[in-house]
Amino acid sequence: MLKKALSLAVAAAIFSAPAFAAMPLVTDDTGTQGKGGLQLETGLERQRATVAGTTTTAWLSAAALTFGLGDRVDLVAGVPWTLQTVEAAGRSVSDNGIGDLALQLKWRFAELEEGRFSIAVKPCITIPAGNEEQGFGTGKVTAGALLIATHRGALGALHLNLGYTRNSYRIEAQEAASRKAIWHASVAGELQVSGTLRAIADSGLDTNRDSGKGTHPAYLLGGVIYSPSERLDLDLGVKGGLNDAQPATSLLAGATMHL
């Protein structure tokens, strides 16, 4: 039973977050790398929750490589990795592994107000790479898309995301217990505190993938992004759950390198 609880907890952790936005934000922006530009993002998130005497601790890591196909078009490839431990009744079990490979294409197709306001679309597919028996993937190709709007001003920027993902699962029990249509909505703001420091805030809501639960995960995130040079961004964040469907508190840290 404890091993089954672990696989379900791993799946919930992996599938609870949209992949590969500008760290530590969950909400993405319309920015692209420019033709030939290359960017590497790495991030780490720690989640811990206790429900009915069972404590789950997860370390969620992700790496994403972005390449500028054109001035307004980026190709993104990323893969998550999870280490998770479930403790109950004096026993504990741990497991770790990579998740499914995500491929995304961001296209900024509209710019208004001399570039201050822009709109982009970001279709995505995931390719089975994780072990779905252990909860590290779906075992099938999934697809979705994200609509992104960004407005930039003198003090910072605002971002809005609306997304949809169609999930499918190889394991029949998971297929039967999971919602297939997953919606995402979020909004984020950046405040330019100084030439090298930005304060960020982010809030959003996702469809609960568990078809037996009616409460949908909602979060509030705050943090900072420090840029010691034009080629490096370092970030820290704290994400809190706004309801019981979201882990109460998560800590995030990451680095973005413009190569």
Tell me what you see in this structure:
- This protein has 259 residues and is mostly beta strands.
- It contains 2 helices and 13 strands; from the N terminus they run αββββββββαβββββ.
- The protein has helices at residues 2-14, 172-177; strands at residues 38-51, 54-70, 73-88, 91-98, 101-112, 117-127, 142-152, 156-166, 181-192, 197-206, 218-229, 232-241, 249-258.
- A 12-stranded antiparallel beta barrel has the order 1-2-3-5-6-7-8-9-10-11-12-13.
- It is globular and about 60 Å long.
What is the helix/strand order?
HEEEEEEEEHEEEEE
What shape does the CA trace take? globular
Mean pLDDT reading:
89
Counting DSSP E segments of at least 2 residues, the number of strands comes to 13
What is the helix content? under 10%
> In whole angstroms, how far apart are the ends?
46 Å
In DSSP terms (H or I, runs of 4 or more residues), the helix count works out at 2
| Major sheet summary line | 12 strands, antiparallel, barrel
Q: Spatial order of the strands in the main sheet?
A: 1-2-3-5-6-7-8-9-10-11-12-13
Beta strand %: over 45%
The helix/strand class is: mainly beta
In the predicted model, the low-confidence regions spanning at least 5 consecutive residues are 3-11, 13-19
- Rounded radius of gyration (Å): 18 Å
